[in-house]
User: Fold this.
Amino acid sequence: MPKIIILPGDGIGAEIVPPAVAVIKAVAQKHKYQFEFEEALIGGAAYDQTGHPLPPATIDLCKNSEAVLLGAVGGDKWDNLPVHLRPEVGALLPLRKALGLYANLRPVQVFSVLADASTLKPAVVAGLDLLIVRELTGGLYFGEKKKEAIDGGYRVVDTLVYTTPEIDRVAKLAFELASKRGGKLMSVDKANVLESSRHWRERFISLAKEYPAVALSHMYVDNCAMQLVRDPQQFDVMVTENMFGDILSDLAAQLTGSIGMLPSASIGGQVSLYEPIHGSAPDIAGQDLANPLATILSAAMMLRLSFNLETAAKTIEQAVAAVLADGYRTGDIMQAGRQQVGTKEMGELVLARL
Ligand code: NAD
Assistant:
């Protein structure tokens, strides 16, 4: 029986993951699929119990599963630990590396009934359907780091490293994804300043010859940030390096009304990992305020990409659309005249519509 590892993590992770698991179970029952679930520790919760934010047992379980569903990690309580024990650096990054997850797919889709929940004008975001492909295991987040004492303070170094194979594999994936969508690929870089970006751009130009049906363009990351709020509909598939993708996808999340709406899939290895793009939101944790829809939509991505269950994935997405169409909102996407509900109730409303 296919095994799914559940990693709730920290903060709102413990609140948003159970509704998503309940949705997978319900949809599996409806479509007569069987999954085995096993929960494991990650993040600050794992550090508190085992002394490490990514216990070896968690890595082993994930490697021996078919898919992983993650909530979020991190929080003030663990911010002052040595950097290698902090939940993000000590758990999230090594887990991605251990599973070989070199690409993070972040679909930015605006549900029509939420077009006026965005802080941008509805005409700018209505119907938006953009896919961001973020390189996930290279670049600044994985390069060598240093902190050396010097006269007057410290000399601090982060290193931005990419190799040709690292660029090529994410480029090929992005070209393939673009060829299955609108055929437009925007590669985002900072080639006017960074050597790594210049090579990134060279490789994309070279590989484009293998994908004649895809129209490749390039944009500097600073301009891209501006274009995403000016006219996001100009984009079909966007691909970029790790840190640029981290920043641009949070920006893009706000186009949909809330970061609580955006799912993601990290792929590239044998086992893929699905998680909302937001963090552990300590400011609202434990208060039944978090929006579980990004995690529920991540579960839909899991069924589609890891298990090839397109109908089941669509069932979940349609249930989410139906709940929103019926006027239910968590606080982050609340609008006048709609009914505000908590995390648990939002999960139950989705379940009821499956
Ligand atoms: P965050 O994404 O946790 O929160 C940013 C803002 O969005 C907050 O106001 C929060 O309340 C709100 N928000 C986030 N998710 C929401 C949801 N589902 N429903 C409603 N509102 C939501 O980012 P942050 O505050 O910068 O980071 C908090 C912690 O999470 C930090 O420790 C950070 O390192 C960590 N983090 C983890 C991940 C991850 O696990 N993948 C990603 C980003 C940040």
User: Anything to note?
Assistant: Residues 42 and 57 are 10 Å apart (CA to CA). Residues 1-102+262-354 form a domain with the Isopropylmalate Dehydrogenase fold (CATH 3.40.718.10). Residues 13-31 form the longest helix (19 residues).
